[in-house]
Amino acid sequence: MSLRYAIAPAVRATAAPPIPKAKAWGPVYAASSAASTAPLLDLSQGVPGTAPHPRVLAALSEHAGTFEAAKYGSIHGEGALRTALAAELREKYGVGPGALEQADVGITTGCNMAFLTLLMVLCEPHTSSVLIPVPAYFNHAMSLSLQSVEPAYIPADPAQGFRPSLAAARAVLEQGAARVNGRDVTPRAIVLVTPNNPTGATYDGETLKQWYDLAKEFRVPLVLDETYRDFVDAPHGLFAEPDWRETLISLGSFSKGYRVPGHRLGSITASPALLHEVATVLDCMQICPPRTAQLALAPLLPELRGDLAEGSAAVAARRRLFEDVVNAVPGWHVASSGGYFAYVRFPEAYGARAAELGLAQGERVGSEAVARVLGERCGVVTLPGAFFMPALDDPVWARIPDAEALRADQWIRFAIANVSDEVIKQLGPRLEKLNAIVGV
Ligand SMILES: Cc1ncc(COP(=O)(O)O)c(C=O)c1O
């Protein structure tokens, strides 16, 4: 359909949302005869599989019908929720009062909005770069592109459990301003996601301290997207650093731990000096975060700790079951896992089976072809690792050091939180069916 007006080039240049592309494989399978005996299994999206705690549901309906919840609220969110979240974070990170206060916490309309807002605050378009490990969460890559900020991709080596290379990051920061695509860009931030989407890799406290020290040395913020922090104990010790506010920015989400993704609540924990700047952007983007969910959750957070712990234990048990099931299938191997995700290597031998995977003879076999056949013919919808990397012919690869292993494009992301153990158990025969189709 044609338009009688223009679309901004940055939007045109940004990849379309990838999940619908993978979801489209499901109906192809559903229309096949196999679907009548073996149902479609959807492990594509990192969403919670169970309803919020009954007390949360009751409080949501109680507040949804009030005049108060219908009014605008504060830009940075309800004072009561900010106070309550600050207390939860002190508990989670093991720090005392003063180390993290209400004034350090802003509520946003989801963590994705927190990230985009932050880019607007930190990065001048066309002159900035951001250090970001690859594989990368696709919405981060898309947000950078929308803001005309160059990604300085840091390889997360599969042989190192997908931990990003500190040495490569140091080299980017030491170089400083760099000429990229005809423009001089300067590094403005380091972004890490832990537990990671897509790989599940969870960086230990010591590793995160090294990244923090690097960020501090080069006077850039360390932005941690901790959307999945409710699925690890004591994620790191950085909030105990007396000067953490000068360097650390931690993003959070209520979507996963509290299982309310549709209510759109996230958070930025950072220096009040940064939150002051963030308010300028948030005033235009959100005016206030959704009030019903804030009012509902604020008094409940302390009593939901047990629920979060149970949810985390259930997901951890499912990850173990998943590893047992997948590793038992010849050629398949769980390369890393954590939080909601497992990153799985498909059999090496698939590389020589282009025709069986619906590709032209001799064509390169990548994760997208494998995930498509797994979806369309075996009824398991996942996201290929290719969705979390630049296209293999993108010139950006020339600027990523030691990226050969990643370019093998041999991994598929399984989201395991939104399915039951019964579904996980059905995966073995499905992967065996794929092996049979491919002939390995
Ligand atoms: C790393 C990461 N950040 C942010 C989000 C989005 O979180 P929210 O629902 O709070 O916007 C997701 C959701 O999948 C995610 O995986």
Overall description:
- With 440 residues, the chain is an alpha/beta fold.
- The chain has 16 helices and 15 strands.
- It folds into two domains: 11-50 and 307-438, Aspartate Aminotransferase, domain 1 (Alpha-Beta Complex); 54-300, Type I PLP-dependent aspartate aminotransferase-like (Major domain) (Aspartate Aminotransferase, domain 2).
- Helices cover 38% and strands 16% of the residues.
- Strand 11 (333-338) and strand 12 form a beta hairpin.
- The radius of gyration is 22 Å and the shape is globular.
- The protein starts with 8 loop residues before the first helix and ends with a helix.
- Pyridoxal-5'-phosphate binds next to helix 7.
Number of strands: 15
Q: Could you tell me the mean pLDDT?
A: 96
> How much helix, percentage-wise, in residues?
25-40%
Q: Can you tell me the CATH superfamily of the largest domain?
A: Type I PLP-dependent aspartate aminotransferase-like (Major domain)
Question: How many helix segments?
Answer: 16
Q: State the CATH topology of the largest domain.
A: Aspartate Aminotransferase, domain 2
Q: Tell me, what is the CATH class of the largest domain?
A: Alpha Beta
| Strand percentage | 15-25%
Q: What is the SS-derived class?
A: alpha/beta
Largest sheet: 9 strands, mixed
Bulk shape? globular
Protein name: Aminotransferase class I/classII large domain-containing protein
Organism: Vanrija albida
Family: Belongs to the class-I pyridoxal-phosphate-dependent aminotransferase family.
Keywords: Aminotransferase, Pyridoxal phosphate, Transferase
